[in-house]
Amino acid sequence: MSHLLNVEEAPAPLSPNRPSMAAFLALGFRPLYIAGASWALISIALWIFTPQLLTGPLSMVGWHAHEMLWGFIITIAVGFLLTASATWTGFNPLHGTPLAVLCILWCIARIGFLAGGLTGFWVALVTELLFFAGSAVALGRVMIKGRSRRNYGVPVLIFMLGVADLMYLLAALDGNYIELMQRFDIGLIGMAIIALLIARRVIPFFAMRMVPDLKIPMLTRSGQYQMVFSGLALAAGIGVQITGTPMTPGNGVHTLPLVMAISLFITGLISLGQLFYWKPQAVLHKPMLWILYLGYAFIGIGLLFAAWQFSNLFDPAILNGVLARSATHVHLIGLAGFCILIIGMLTRTALGHLGRPLALDRSMLAGHWLVVVAAALRLAALWPTATSVHLLHLSAVAWIVALGLYLWRFVPMLIRPRPDKPAPVAAAKKPAVVRPAEAR
Q1: Backbone conformation region of residue 432, classed left if phi is above 0, alpha if psi is from -120 to 50, else beta
Q2: Using CA atoms, how far apart are residues 341 and 295, in angstroms rounded to an integer?
Q3: Which of 2-11, 380-389, 393-402, 415-424 has maximum average pLDDT?
Q4: Residue 223, number of CB atoms within 10 A of its CB
Q5: pLDDT tens per residue across span 271-316
Q6: Does residue 319 have a pLDDT over 60?
């Protein structure tokens, strides 16, 4: 991981000042960062301002939840992993035509779920499963080829997220809203495992590189416990689905939901404890760092709220029922956690892999703050008041502007070769490579 940002892309035949398809398809983060960020902007605009367009088997809140988790958040994670795995293993898992095919599958899925109709739904379901299967196979192949044993679980997690996606989509087809949200939680927990795994590795590395003389521990042992308990929570959630155990408040305490709640609670505590050891006070003057710390903190907080809800040990009337709503932990983990973390990762990793200075300009900094504002307003809108709908709309506007700024600033860079890599024509067909010393 100490060489995360040193992947070399193949030189492109064009000038670094001109767009290049070879550069665009050199590493997974380039097309998938653009695709995920664009869809995050479009999907929120559709959900908040034109929900009447969201018809079909996957519609309204079911469509919104699916597209934000699998269509955006997990897509960005796949883009990152397809890139980082090249450094972990020494082999680029996907580039050129295979990467283009993967992106086309992703696009067909987005169109199919949005178009409505049973045929569009099934086409989208199949292509989306092929997207996750293809990503998992590509990651698994290079992990084995590069003997990156510590990362063997990563392609398995991506495959499991595809299985959770299938479970969610079949519940949507049945029209069972309670089952739909339970299966969404399985996907949410699965993504939390990946987010915690990635963030626990990169945050200390990024912080020590950017803050002179800062020394913070990697916390490998606590990370192992974190993975064990988050995995146990995921297994308990799957068990709930298999056994049909009720999880709604008022049905009493059941073993599997209680195991799930305890595991999530411990995972959340470990996450917040790790932040303490990462010396957050040392990064307050570095927006590129504190945005990552903040997102990680909200994932931990959200896991605590999820544990509280799944335990069924609280009174639903507390705080006007806000804590009893699944939307509370979903938006704490998904928006305040994943999305704040993602805007930081989208910026930091893109700049690093593109050979750009690791510094935020005004538009990038504004994008960071707008995502934080969007999360704060969306959480405030959970409180049932006359202003809730206005807060929701303001949150959506802040989100749309934030992602628009990111795309405006980064698309021109993502479709061009690195400025620090010459582009001789003779090397145009060489695949992306990683220096052997950086393989693991």
Answers
A1: beta
A2: 4
A3: 393-402
A4: 17
A5: 999 999 999 999 999 999 999 999 999 999 999 999 988 887 766 5
A6: no
**Cα angle at 330 between 389 and 122, to 5 degrees?**
95
CA distance 391 to 29: 33
Q: Which residue do the tokens 């809730």 mark?
A: 388
Contact yes or no for 190/161 (Cβ under 8 A)? yes
Predicted confidence band of residue 242 (pLDDT cuts 50, 70, 90): confident
Which residue in 94, 342, 76 sits closest to 199, CA to CA?
Answer: 342
* Nearest residue to 391 (alpha-carbon basis) of 404, 374, 371, 368: 374
What does the angle CA 181 – CA 293 – CA 372 come to, to the nearest 5 degrees? 65
Among the ranges given (95-104, 152-161, 428-437), the one the predictor scored with the smallest mean pLDDT: 428-437
Alpha carbons 307 and 268: distance in angstroms, whole number = 9
Owner of token pair 């504004």: 366
pTM: 0.89
Q: What is the DSSP letter of 12?
A: P
- Coil, strand or helix at 424: coil
- Whole-Å CA distances, 63 to 114, 186, 189, 219, 439: 8, 16, 19, 38, 40
- Range 420-430 average pLDDT: 48
Radius of gyration of the chain, Cα coordinates, nearest whole angstrom = 21
Residue 8: strand pairing partners: 433
Is 122 or 440 the better-scoring residue by pLDDT?
Answer: 122
pLDDT at 7 over 80: no
Place 433 in a pLDDT band, splitting at 50, 70 and 90. very low
Give the C-alpha distances (Å, rounded to integers) separating 240 from 254, 256, 300: 10, 6, 23
Instruction: Give the whole-angstrom CA distance, residue 437 versus residue 335.
Output: 38
How far is residue 262's CA from residue 369's CA, in Å, rounded to a whole number?
33
Alpha-carbon span 226 to 269, nearest angstrom: 9
**In 332-361, which residue ranges form alpha helices assigned H by DSSP?**
340-353
In angstroms, rounded to a whole number, what is the distance separating the alpha carbons of residues 405 and 343? 11
The whole-number pLDDT of residue 314 equals 63
Spatial separation of the C-alpha atoms in residues 12 and 18, rounded to whole Å: 10
- Identity of residue 115: A
- Rounded CA gap, 233 and 294, in Å? 23
Distance from C-alpha of 243 to C-alpha of 29, rounded to nearest angstrom: 39
Alpha-carbon distances of 338 from 32, 50, 110, 193, 293, rounded to whole Å: 16, 25, 20, 11, 11
SS3 388: helix
Sign of CA dihedral 245, 251, 255, 261: positive
